[in-house]
Amino acid sequence: MPVGLFRVCLLVITAIVNHPLFFPKENGTVPENTEEIIQKMKEREESLRLEQLRLEQEIADQEATQRALEKAAVVVEESKEEKVRWDMWTALSLVIFLLIELWRQDFQEGNWQDTGGEEDDMAVLGKAFQGVSLPDKAVLASFYEKRILGTTADMARMREMVEGFADDLLEALRSVCNRDADMEVEDCMGVGSMYENWRVRKPFVCDLIVPFAPPEPYCFCCQTWCSGDSFPPDEQGYGTIKVCRADEDATGCICDKTKLGEDMLCLLHSQVSSTRPSSEMEDLLCFKNTQYLDADQVMKWFQIAVTKAWNRISHKYEFDLSFSLLDSPGALKIKFKSGKSIAFNLTPVVQYENSDVYFISHFPRSSLAADVPSSTHWFLTFAVYERRFIQLVSKTLPANACHVSCLQILSFLHGKQCSLTGPSGLTNYHLKTVLLHLLQARPSQDWAPEKLEARLQDMLKFLEKCLHEKKLYHFFIGNGKVPAELGFPIIFQRAEPLNLFRPFVLRRDIYRKMVDTFHEMLRNMSALINEYTVHIPLAHTNGIRKE
C-alpha cells in the first residue's frame, strides 16, 4: 500500500514539473520560430510551383515530339504505299513492254525467210543503197570473165593435188598411231568456198575436215545448246563432247550419284571401273579432272601426229611441209623447190550422232569462234549440208545461173574494200548466208544469167537490212523449210533461230566498223569494178557464163 501511494505521488510531481506553463520564460521564443517556419514553407511552396511548371513544360515538349514522330511515321507509311503503287505500275509497264518486244521478235522470226519473196519488198529496203548504181550487164560480164574466171581456172587441179596428198598423210598418221590408245582418224572431206566454187581471192586455201573417234571401249556423247540442257545466250551454237565408255550412259549410272552402302554393289559397274584415274582421261584428250574433250589437247595431239606422219612419208615427195600459222594449229603449207607454195587446212572434227553436222575444234582464218567460252566448248559446223544445199538447188536453176557469180563478185568487192580500210566483222560466211536465204526465197527463174544485176542488188539490200537490224539468222538453225532430201537433223530445225550478228550487239566498235566498211564498199563498187574491166563496145550484150 505505501508503495502504491509513493508511485502516485511521484507521477503527480513529474507531471507538474513538465507542464509547459510551469516555465514561461523558457518557451518565450515559440512565436519567432513559427514565422521562420512559415517563411521557409512559402519558399518551399514557390520552388515546388516552379518545379511543377518545369515538369509541365517538359511533358508538353515530349507530347509535341511524340506527335511529330507519329506524323513523320504516317508520312513515311504513305510514301511507302505510294512507292509500292509506283513500283507496281513500273513493273507492269516493263512487263507489257517486254511482252510487246517478244511478240515483235517472234513475229519477225516467224517471217524471217519471207524477206525475198517480192521485188517490191526488196525495192524499199536500205537507205544507204539509194543512189548507188551498179554497172550495166556488159561491164559486169567483162569484169566477171576477166577478174573472176581468169583467176579461178586452176582451182580444180589444186583441189585434186591437195586431196591426194591429204589422203596419203592421213594413212601415214594411222600407221604411226597406237590403235589401242590413240584416236581413230577417218577420211577427210573438203568444205568451204574452194569446194563450192566461189572462192576468188588468192591465195587459194583448201579447207579439209578430218573426223576422229576415241579408241574402244570409249565413245563420244555429244550435247548441244538445243538438246534441252541450259546454255547461256553466249554459248548458243556450241556444244560439249563427253568421253564415255560404250556400256555407260552419257548421264552416268546412279551409282555415281547415290552413296551405296558398304554391303551393296552396282551390278553394272564394278568398283574398279567406276573410278577412273585422271591420267586415263587426260590420255583421252579430256580437260583436266573432267570427262569433256578438250579442243586444245586435240589440236596438240593432231599436230604431233601429223609431224610423225610426215616424217614417215617425206622421202616420197620433192617438197617440204610445215605449219604455216601459229594461231591456226591445222594450217599447213607445201613449199616446192621452185619457191611456189600451196596452203591448206586440216582440222579435226567430231561427228554429231549419225549426221553430217560436226563439232569443229578450230576455225581457220575466221572470227566465228574468236570468243569460245572454254576449250571444252566446240562450235558446230554445217558446212557439209551447206555444200549439199547449193548442189541441190543448182540442179533446179537455169543453165549458167548467176547465184555463184553473185557471191563471187560480192566476195571480191568485200575483200578489196577490206584491203583498203582494214578488216571488219563482216565475213564471207555472212555473204554466203545471205545467198542461201535468197536461194530458198526466190523462184528458180529469178537466177537466170541475165538477171545478175538484179540479184546483186537483192543481196546488197538484204545485207543492209540485216546490218540495220543487227540480225542475220543462220540458214539451217531454226529453218523448218530445209529440203527433206538433205536429211538434216530435226533437232536443229526446231531450235530457236541463231543470230549470227548477236556478238556485234554489245561490241559497238566492231559493229560501227562493219557498217562503215559496207557503206564504203557500196560507194566504191563502181570504181572497183571498172578498175578490172576492159573497154566494152556499147553493142556488146553477151551474158555471163558460169564457171
Tag the structure with descriptive keywords:
547 residues, Beta Polymerase, domain 2, 10-stranded mixed sheet, 12% strand, elongated, disordered C terminus
Quick overview of this protein structure:
With 547 residues, the chain is an alpha+beta fold. It has 15 helices and ten strands. The protein has a domain at 126-248 and 282-534: Beta Polymerase, domain 2 (2-Layer Sandwich), CATH 3.30.460.90.
Outline the structure in words.
This protein has 547 residues and is α+β, with helices and mostly antiparallel strands. It has a domain at 126-248 and 282-534: Beta Polymerase, domain 2. Helices cover 48% and strands 12% of the residues. The chain is built from 15 helices and ten strands. It has helices at 2-17, 30-110, 119-123, 137-149, 155-176, 193-196, 271-274, 278-283, 295-313, 383-394, 403-421, 428-441, 452-469, 490-493, 508-531, and strands at residues 184-185, 189-191, 205-213, 218-224, 238-245, 319-325, 328-336, 341-351, 358-360, 378-381. Strands 1, 2, 3, 4, 5, 6, 7, 8, 9 and 10 form a ten-stranded mixed beta sheet that branches. Helix 11 packs antiparallel against helix 12 (428-441), helix 11 (403-421) crosses helix 13 (452-469) and helix 11 (403-421) packs across helix 15. The longest helix is centred in the N-terminal third of the chain and has 81 residues, at 30-110. The radius of gyration is 46 Å and the shape is elongated. It starts with a helix and ends in a 16-residue tail after the last helix. 26% of the residues are buried. Mean pLDDT is 79; it is low at 25-30, 108-126, 256-260, 268-278 and 535-547. One of its GO terms (molecular function) is protein kinase inhibitor activity. Keywords: Cell membrane, Coiled coil, Glycoprotein, Membrane, Nucleus, Signal, Transmembrane, Transmembrane helix. Residues 404-477 form the Mab-21-like HhH/H2TH-like domain. It is found in: Cell membrane; Nucleus outer membrane. Belongs to the ITPRIP family.
